[in-house]
Amino acid sequence: MRAHPEGIEDIPDYENYDYESEWHGRRTQDRAEKSLVSGWVESGESCLELGGGFGRLTSVLEPKFEKVFMIDFSRRNLSRASERLKKTRLIRTSITKIPFEDSTFDSVVAVRVLHHVPQLAETIQEMARVSRDGACIVIGVPNTRRLRGPAENRMVAVGPQGHRIYAAPMSAYANPLLERIGMRGLGLFDNRMGRTLSPVGPLSRLDVATSSVWTIRPEVFIKFRVRKEGLRREPFVICTCGAKLSQGTCSSCGRSYGKIIDLAEHDS
Length: 268
Hints:
Elements: H1 27-40, E1 44-50, H2 58-61, E2 65-72, H3 75-84, E3 89-92, E4 105-111, H4 120-130, E5 131-142, E6 154-158, E7 164-167, E8 178-186, H5 192-196, H6 202-209, E9 219-226, E10 245-246, E11 249-250, E12 260-262, H7 263-267
Parallel strand pairs: 1-2, 1-4, 2-3, 3-12, 4-5
Antiparallel strand pairs: 5-9, 6-7, 8-9, 10-11
Helix pairs in contact: 1-6
């Protein structure tokens, strides 16, 4: 693990963690999540996905938007994402400080990532900050309906390569700028039976069709509408020096980035 330059807790060793292998044999869950997310996220000009990994869900977001950006910290994930995605701009950095101006995106998506973030409230605030008025935010998180206590994040486990796992009550995902407009649950067949029957397409459709019964599902998806004031801005990545990137080059310091905009490398 390495210490993040901003003092955030040590970031796990993502480079020796094959996240893509986590989805081997889970076609039912994969199809269900892609169906729900693509159906929920509204088409628009720009979309940002946080913790998009190897581009699993990003691939169904691309056809819905003119401009798509995806952030992940793993070079390994981003390299694989670059092979499968057509137009998404890939950025390597921490999702706790999003490198875009206020009111930039029509949609922001964060699925299976927020339970790895210790600064949950701050990250949700960042998602709201970079969203335009009227934008939609879709998150996918573990179902913590039975978790009691204050709306705070707490570490509950450490996974492979030092992946910290956090849990917070469902109330912790609230924010004054966000109006909750939908809640669904998936994972009815994300188990041994579902994996055995993964080639059976109707299972994923059944999972999505009954997703309104979210309380019994291991994974919860929440859709928010952003309510805020502010001018709409165009999506330009912000360099580590604070200026905008144009065609992969900083307009101020002149630093040039490659196909994957590696802000973490330049910020370390």
